[in-house]
Design a protein that fits this description.
By secondary structure, the chain is of the alpha/beta class. It has one domain: Alpha-Beta Barrel (TIM Barrel), CATH 3.20.20. Helices cover 39% and strands 16% of the residues. The chain is built from eleven helices and eight strands. It has an eight-stranded parallel beta barrel, surrounded by four helices. Strand 1, helix 1 and strand 2 form a beta-alpha-beta unit.
Length: 248
Amino acid sequence: MRKKVVAGNWKMNMTPSDGAKFAAELAPKLNTDNAEAVFCVPYTDIAAVAEAIKETNVGLGAQNLHYEDKGAFTGEITAAMLMELGVRYVIIGHSERREYYAETDEAVNKKLKKALEAGLTPIVCVGESLIQREQNITADWLRMQVRIAFLGIPAEAVPKTVIAYEPIWAIGTGKVATNEQAQEACAVIRQLLTELYGKETAEATRILYGGSVNADNAKALFAMDDIDGGLVGGASIKPEFEKIVNGY
């Protein structure tokens, strides 16, 4: 039985003081018996939020990392830096990183390897644009992204990862894939994992849906056979995140 994961991607929101206040108020209300709850916060908020949630079972996540251990990479951050601050999850390959900062599938693969090496739980994002969906190449696109992201990743490491399917056309737009569209895409990903690693590994790996998830649609989405929770954007910095995690 795969335990659900509900990860909130705060994106570039919340100062450290705002983030700590929000996390301290919300974290104790989250029921983590049936779902892992995670706050993926800006780098500047990590220390403050870590302190705010230290007496809870809520996990702390970052929104990116570099694939090198150190060096002349101004503005970047390493896996070791994150781990020392208490981070245990990290988002990799979010569509905004790919679109605005030219992050490639090859870079996602390097970051995934580094996250696993450090003991972080990577949340690897994949998803298609509107034109790709309209051209009926969603399945091909997802299979390509996952294949490259997991190149060189051994079978035993795959269940230590989380894959987030995020249709780009549904991120921050208010549009949501139907339950059936989301299920179909997540099933494509699980089928590919079966082909690459075998059924047991595929069945043990969590696959999330992301893209305008909110308190009104989360329960039905998360009930689909191959959807094991969500990567939540805008709603993750609102009180409704409690309803999404707690399932009502």
